Amino acid sequence: MTTRHLLASLLAGMAFLGQAQGAMARPAEGTLGYPQRIALPEDALVVIEWRGPDGAVAGESRFATEGRQVPLPFTLDLPDGMDLSLRAAVFVAGRTAWLSDMAGIVAGETPVAIGELRLTPFQPMGFDSVMQCGDLRLRIGFVGEDAVMELPGGERRVLSPAITASGAKYAAADDPDTWFWSKGGTLALVSLAGRELPECFPVPPAPGPGFQAAGNEPFWMLRLDEGRISFTPNIGEDPVTASLPAPRLDGSDFVFDAPEAALRLRLAPRICHDSMSGMPHPQTVTVTHDGQDYSGCGGAPLDLLLGGEWVVEDIAGGGMIDAAHVTMAFTPARISGQGGCNRYSGGFTLTGEGLSFGPAIATRMACAPALMDQESRFFGLLPQVAGFDIDETGALLLLGADGVAMITARRGG
What we know:
globular, Lipocalin, 7% helix, mainly beta, Immunoglobulin-like
């Protein structure tokens, strides 16, 4: 199919890209509870977040407990046109304290009786909280006197206490314009190399199976979940288990020591490529067990794509037209953005072997011929993508079947 015919089919399949925005409100109610006899402080905050079928955040509700204790009743206005998954978290002093499992809500129009969402104590794996700062999500952890801030894509900055008149402020030793400033309660401010982000608020951690890592020859596997370590040294062997200890920092690496199981885990925020598939992962992991080192990759490749907008800076080695704005933004199952002239949206599939894009839909705006031609080339290349990588500068490379970069993009400022 020619790129002209492809663009025509994209335009012919145009649909309204903001369906969720037009959905009617659907009332829902439930309660939050836990069996432990532990009182919540007066300044505890509840945040309930719901996600659509593609895993993207579709809305949230938050309220202060103001001294109230569990069971805590809540009411929500949910969109009625989609299946939803819902999760609640309770924050104390800005840190995640209690977390619920995901609750499924089937699409419909009638009011929803959710019942009780059971809360369990949150078990951090180095990071205490997820913060929403405008369109950007950050993870914040505290190790000893320092704070650790993880950016989208896995980059970590270690921040030390800084003098401030109010709240608690942490700044990078090598860059005082990079800081995290907790203003008390649940509000925080963040600056990245002098660029101040919108006000930050805590949100529930993303759903998932915990942290996983693996390596080849021997084929080992590591899982960190619900406050436990499970390490299988080789296929068919019994796992070695232990309680997950609090981490210590070695540079920007998290190190977990579990001497009762002869285990040491090192999680380094450096891109790791699977030695068999070449798939990139956000962390390089080393497990030491009984004096033997096991090296491999950890974290989900999808996390390298999520976390904000990518701005395209090259298409097929031809550069970009001045002032052209071509973007990509990923949710767990969808891509959307600006093609340079038209908005577009489509699905993608990420497996252990590669990345591929499905059919897309786009709006019908007309632009200058040069912009239309560039957009046509961009849309024409997406179906040819077979994989991706992150280079040493942090740029996203969308690769063809031959491993050559066809589209290069960089995170937006």
